[in-house]
Amino acid sequence: MAKRYHIDLSKRDIEGAEVALLPGDPKRAESIADRLVGTYGGRKKLLAQKREFTTWLARTTLADIVVTSTGIGGPSTSIAVEELAGLGLKRFIRVGTTGAIQPHIAIGDVIITTGAVRLDGASRHYAPIEFPAVAHHRIVCSLIKAAERLGTGYHVGISASSDTFYPGEERTDSYRKYVIRELKGATKEWQALGVLNYEMESATLLTMTASMGLEGGCITGVINRARCGSITQRALRKGERNVIEVAVASLEYLLKGGK
Predict the structure, then answer these.
(1) Is 171 part of the annotated catalytic residue set?
(2) Distance in angstroms (rounded) separating the CA atoms of residues 173 and 31
(3) What is the rounded average pLDDT for all residues in the chain?
(4) Is 104 a catalytic residue?
(5) Contact 19, 247 (CB under 8 A)
(6) What is the DSSP letter of 249?
(7) pTM of the complete model
(8) Among 57, 224, 225, 236, which one has the highest count of C-beta atoms within 10 angstroms of its own C-beta?
(9) Which class for 131: exposed (0-12), middle (13-18), buried (19 or more C-beta within 10 A)?
(10) Catalytic annotation on 83?
């Protein structure tokens, strides 16, 4: 049976799974698979490792769940979603990290994205810029219920999804320490418009799923304040732990109605 070129998977490999959790980091994919098995029982299986795409299958008592890393940014995310959808996956949840831009959001909180500001380029290859990058309501509701049950601080709203980590998020800790005129003041404007955070994949994912008849969602753990310097290991561990816990717990509501 033919395998999809980039993710190196065939339909036989995914064993009928219909839900995919999509971290950016290949190492986080195994952590999510471990959490799935720890929460619902079962076993995990490494399916493929090629380029930035590492895929685990968690065969749990709840369902078979695919966990595939996408790498950083929209172009590689679009490849993962295209090829997984071609194998029969229908629901996609990004499980990532983020920098908050609103003062009331704390390190370790999770942000549940309802829609994304399309600051990427990849999404424009799937729908014109007027088309909204929106999350599916069932996934949003499931993530909210899980965060409330776990007592995790959460925020629901709009994310700014940028193609670049440095100028696109108006950071000045880059090599050149310069932000082009078009992007200067962008963060202040997004803050005034109520945007919660910066991240790099939701615009692509949510435009694709909304325009292709699939279900998409995005949850990210806050690990720093946008435009700030280095990310501490403590903040990274807290943000990753919380976002994984909520994402995994949400599947009980998404797939079984919480029963």
Answers:
(1) yes
(2) 30
(3) 95
(4) no
(5) no
(6) H
(7) 0.96
(8) 57
(9) middle
(10) yes
Among the listed residues 123, 197, 112, the one whose alpha carbon sits nearest the alpha carbon of residue 147? 112
pLDDT higher than 90, residue 221: yes
Using one digit for the tens of pLDDT, what is the confidence trace for 115-165? 999 999 999 999 999 999 999 999 999 999 999 999 999 999 999 999 999
Beta strand residue intervals within 105-153, DSSP E: 110-119, 133-134
Structural tokens at position 104: 């009331």
Q: What are 53's strand-pairing partners?
A: 50
What pLDDT, on the 0 to 100 scale, is given for residue 258? Answer: 55
Q: Sort 34 into a burial class: Cβ within 10 Å, 0-12 / 13-18 / 19+.
A: middle
Of 28, 59, 91, 225, the active-site residue reads 225
Cβ neighbours of 168 (radius 10 Å): 19
Instruction: Give the active site residue among 91, 136, 171, 240.
Output: 171
Q: Are 80 and 70 in contact (CB under 8 A)?
A: yes
- Write out the DSSP string of 48-69: EEETTEEEEEEE-SS-EEEEE-
Q: Where are the beta strands (DSSP E) in the chain?
A: 19-22, 43-50, 53-59, 64-68, 91-100, 110-119, 133-134, 154-162, 197-199, 215-225
All structural domains of the chain, each given as residue ranges with its CATH number in brackets, are 11-256 (3.40.50.1580)
